[in-house]
Design a protein that fits this description.
The complex is a heterodimer of chains A (95) and B (420). Chain A is mostly helical. Chain A is 46% helix and 0% strand. Chain A is globular. Classes of the chains: A mainly alpha (95), B alpha/beta (420).
């Protein structure tokens, strides 16, 4: 199963989204998941892929970009766990 | 000062998840206390509790449920019941003059317990993403405010076992003064995690299991009383400016007449006669009522040796010779001690029973105790009661005592209970 398919699975299972809506160019902020939902999604991604996301927050853009980010993260953490992590954009739950 | 009507009640309780069911069980004296079956039950000295039959999935979609501790689920669903019973129309509400006042002693204790389990026992380096939101004590009040778009005060009171009585009382003060027109007020508690129960066990305040009937393990005011049994649940009232309630044709359960608040300030757990009596007197003063106007008492009545003796003495100090003629009910014998939610639940049950002309029984009172010699309505509900008013007491670890006074609303005006 590809990373994209596994991410799609998270969105369908956890957020009850329609799988036909989940194309690679679908912006994640257009799925009706609020900032807290996105924070939660980072947790699910860590669980699913066994990776550690940066604590300072992550923003993905589209579903395809999210899959690419996760792939890069997996590759980076296979080598050095800390040094080559992709630079994240900011996620702010509004606290 | 304005009068305060009680126009809706919502209950998620060990005795049932509706007013009708809970009242029926309370009047019948059916105990909800049971032996609990969990993976850790055999590590408890007495695996007893009064649990709520409740599945969060039936009330919340998964994304919302993942943000709610059990205590928040109870509170929101009880609030929905109360709002529905009061037939509130959000469109007619001035949202800035409507508030939420919730009491909880332990907040999101189960979520905190799960987090500790994950970190300390399971060796994980992370906890659930919404651990803060689930564990924070003001979450139940916040979610109720969000659900009904109420922009007035949104307050959480955490004064251990008096939390919800304080919440209701503080809402009453703001309604009476005219600061707000409507309040959703009550309490919620979900303390039945392994950690929560072991913490209470460590204080040596929990009842041992009755050898013949586990459901009879909590025995308020009985000579063989041996402690409290923990319970869970929520009770929420709609409190409303009397004029507003009557204007919109609301069905009025009763009137909240008074609220006393006083503190023992002597010992972190041991109650005092002086502190409890002072709180009862403060409630009478706030209601502008003489002690003679109190027709019944809903006791704190935990079933511990110390509380029940001290409470009995405090009632005698306030009511003098008349103390022996006032029926005193202690319903914790059957629904357990809901800690921060107990004051709201017990006031609600007492008021609902008064409306049926019934005084609720104090169950499992089998052995008269020399230090508890009042009329506790032992073991059987008393029907055909003419009681209109009830004093409901909540006394807490930490010494923050709260007493509420309410009257059922009938053909005669509850306001006439005042005076003298």
């Amino acid at each position: 199963m590809t990373t994209l398919e596994r991410l799609t699975g998270i969105l369908v299972q956890r957020y009850k989204l329609d799988p036909t809506q989940l194309t690679p160019d679908q912006p994640l902020d257009g799925l009706g998941i609020d900032s807290l939902g996105m924070v939660e999604m980072l947790f699910f991604i860590e669980e699913e892929f066994g990776v550690h996301l940066p604590s300072e927050g992550v923003t993905f853009g589209t579903l395809g970009q999210a899959a690419k980010y996760v792939d890069e993260l997996i590759a980076a953490q296979k080598g050095s766990r800390q040094s080559t992590r992709p630079q994240p954009a900011s996620t702010d739950p509004g606290v | 000062m304005r009068r305060v009507a009680i126009t809706g009640i919502g209950l998620i309780s060990p005795l049932g998840n509706s007013c009708a069911e809970a009242l029926t069980n309370a009047m019948a004296g059916r105990s909800a206390i049971r032996r609990i079956e969990t993976p850790w039950s055999d590590r408890l000295s007495a695996p007893l509790a009064a649990c709520v039959s409740f599945q969060g999935e039936e009330h919340f979609p998964p994304p919302r449920l993942r943000m709610l501790d059990r205590v928040g689920q109870f509170a929101v669903v009880a609030a929905r019941q109360a709002v529905g019973a009061a037939r509130l129309d959000a469109a007619t509400l001035n949202r800035e003059r409507a508030g939420v006042f919730i009491g909880s002693g332990m907040g999101g204790a189960q979520s905190n317990d799960e987090g500790y389990l994950s970190l300390y026992r399971n060796g994980s380096d992370r906890v659930k993403p919404f651990s803060v939101l689930m564990g924070m004590t003001n979450a139940p009040a916040a979610w109720i405010g969000i659900e009904y778009d109420l922009a007035g005060p949104n307050l959480t009171y955490s004064t251990a076992c008096s939390s919800s009585a304080v919440a209701i009382g503080e809402a009453w003060l703001r309604l009476r003064s005219g600061d707000i027109d409507l309040a959703i007020a009550g309490g919620a508690e979900a303390p039945l995690s392994f950690g929560g129960m072991k913490a209470w066990e460590a204080l040596h305040t929990l009842a041992s299991e009755d050898p013949t009937d586990p459901s009879a393990s909590c025995k308020p005011f009985s000579a063989d009383r041996c402690g409290l049994v923990l319970g869970e649940g929520a009770a929420v009232l709609i409190l409303e400016d009397w004029a507003r309630a009557t204007c919109r044709g609301a069905s009025i359960h009763g009137e909240l007449l008074g609220y006393g608040l006083a503190t023992d300030a002597s010992h972190i757990t041991r109650p005092t006669v002086a502190g409890q009596a002072a709180t009862m007197r403060a409630a009478l003063r706030s209601a502008d009522m003489a002690a003679d106007a109190i027709d019944s008492i809903n006791a704190h009545g935990t079933g511990t040796q110390v509380n029940d003796a001290v409470e009995t003495a405090a009632i005698k100090e306030v009511f003098r010779g008349r103390a022996y003629g006032i029926p005193v009910s202690a319903t914790k014998a059957i629904h357990g001690h809901l800690l921060g939610a107990s004051g709201a639940l017990e006031l609600a049950l007492a008021l609902l029973a008064l409306r049926q002309d019934v005084l609720l029984p104090t169950m499992h009172l089998r052995v008269p105790a020399p230090d508890c010699d009042l009329d506790y309505v032992p073991n059987e509900a008393r029907r055909g009661s003419h009681a209109r008013t009830v004093m409901s007491s909540s006394f807490a670890f930490g010494g923050t005592n709260a007493v509420l006074i309410a009257a059922k609303h009938g053909a005669d005006d509850p306001g006439s209970a005042r005076g003298a």
